[in-house]
Amino acid sequence: MDHRLLEIIACPVCNGKLYYSQDKQELICKVDNLAFPFKENIPVLLETEARTLDPEESFS
Ligand SMILES: [Zn+2]
Predict the structure, then answer these.
(1) Where residue 49 sits, what CATH number does that domain have?
(2) Can you give the pTM of this predicted structure?
(3) Which Gene Ontology CC terms are recorded (predicted)?
(4) Residue 40 Cα, ligand 1 centroid: separation in angstroms?
């Protein structure tokens, strides 16, 4: 994942900062508890494609 990309992309729901989860290959919004997937190395920043994080998942 290109880290420069992380600086320019934002959560489509709250417009906040996204965190990259290397484990799961997802982009995490802690505000909305959403995880956005990658498709062919392109982040899919669509609320409809995101999954809701389980409460026990933490990305501190
Ligand atoms: Zn958000």
Answers:
(1) 2.20.25.10
(2) 0.83
(3) cytosol
(4) 22
21 inside domain: yes
State the total domains in the chain: 1
Dig out the tokens for 25 from the structure.
């290959």
CA–centroid distance, 28 to ligand 1, in Å, is: 8
Range of the domain at 22: 1-54
Instruction: Say if 26 falls within a structural domain.
Output: yes
Q: Which two tokens stand for residue 14?
A: 């709250």
Beta strands in 4-46 (DSSP E): 19-21, 26-29, 34-39, 42-43
Using the mean position of ligand 1's atoms as its centre, give its distance from the Cα of residue 44 in Å. 13
Q: Do you know the residue count of the chain?
A: 60
Q: Using a CB cutoff of 5 Å, list residues around ligand 1, an ion.
A: 11, 13-14, 16, 29, 31-32
2-55 pLDDT, tens digit per residue, is: 677 777 899 999 999 999 998 899 999 999 999 999 999 899 999 999 999 988
